[in-house]
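Dear support,

I submitted the protein below through the web form. The confirmation email said the job was done, but the results page showed an empty box. After a refresh the structure appeared. I'm attaching both so you can tell me whether what I see now is the final result or a partial one.
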Amino acid sequence: MVKALRERRGWFASIPAFLLGQFLTFITLGIQTSTANDMDSLLISYGIASKAIFPGIPFIFFTLGAFFINFAALIRINDIHH
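What the results page shows now:
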C-alpha cells in the first residue's frame, strides 16, 4: 500500500483508498486476535495447556506501524498531493 501511495499507481494510490485498506487490515487483525483469545480460553477451560504465542503481537505491530506511516504522511501531505 505504501509503494502504491508513493508511486501514485494502483488501487491504493489515493489517500482515502489507502486509509480504507489500513482500516480493513486493522479490523481483520482485530478479529483474528479475538478469535485466538477465544480459542485460548476454550482450551484452558478444558484443561489443555495452551502453548500459543501471544496472539495480539501482529495487531500491536500493525497499530504502531500504521501510526508512524500516517504521521509521516500527514507531515508530507503536500508531497503526496502533487
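Response: this is the final, complete result; the empty box was a page-load delay. The chain has a mean pLDDT of 76.
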